[in-house]
Amino acid sequence: MRRRSLKVLLTGTASDSHTWNLVYLRLFLEEQGHRVTGLGPCVPDDLLVAACAQPGPELVVISSVNGHGYRDGLSAVRALRAAGVQVPVAVGGKLGVAGQADPARRDTLLAAGCTAVFDDGDVGALRAFAAALVPGARVPAGSVSGGPVSAGVAPAGPVTGRVLSAGSVSAGRVPAAAARSLA
pLDDT digit string (tens) for 86-142? Predict the structure, then answer.
């Protein structure tokens, strides 16, 4: 029998002291069958990196609601990648204080190593993204951007960045090591 869940590490950002978003996301991800470990709010980059040590998570979800998700998420993903952590990283929530999505910031997060960037409140896209990472999972075609994932196989290389019709997620690069570990 194939496993239908992921080991998810859920965290707030370094400057965000909010917890309701983390409680909601934990319940949401657990309802989808994933096993979630929460680090809580105000998580510095070094603590996040340490939490990814072996045996580590299969997906890191970084959530922010204070409007500094871009800055803090960028710092966190850079620290993870610099430490050699190659699991998929999704960043979402309020990424800026302007109150609107910023494609340039999304592109910067993806270029820095984020696997996916989600707009505030887009849990449907997070659900589809996480489901596509589950080994052996069958994901309906078109439910996650990038095409290769829709066949139920983790992408082996770059996933093209495009936004789902709901304006939800831009998939970035899935590092080859992460794709192999998820297959």
Answer: 999 999 999 988 877 889 999 999 999 999 999 887 888 999 999 999 887 665 544
| pTM of the predicted protein model | 0.76
Q: Can you tell me the distance from the alpha carbon of 174 to that of 179, in angstroms, rounded to the nearest whole number?
A: 6
Q: List C-alpha distances in Å: 93 to 22, 143, 152, 154, 158.
A: 11, 20, 26, 24, 24
Letter string b/e over residues 98-129, b meaning 16 or more CB atoms within 10 A of that residue's CB: eeebeeebbeebbebbbbbbbbbebeebbbbb
Look up residue 125 and give its two tokens.
């896209």
Query: Could you give the count of Cα atoms lying within 13 Å of 143 in the half-sphere of its Cβ?
Result: 20
Q: What is the mean pLDDT of residues 167-171?
A: 29
Distance CA 36, CA 29 (A): 7
Residue 88 Cα to chain centre, angstroms:
6
Distance CA 47, CA 34 (A): 22
Contact between 44 and 172 under an 8 Å Cβ cutoff? The reply is no
Handedness of CA 90, 95, 101, 102 (dihedral sign): negative
Residue the block writes with tokens 């849990």? 123
- Tell me the per-residue pLDDT of 24-64, one tens digit each, with 9 for 90 and over: 999 999 999 999 999 999 999 999 999 998 788 999 999 99
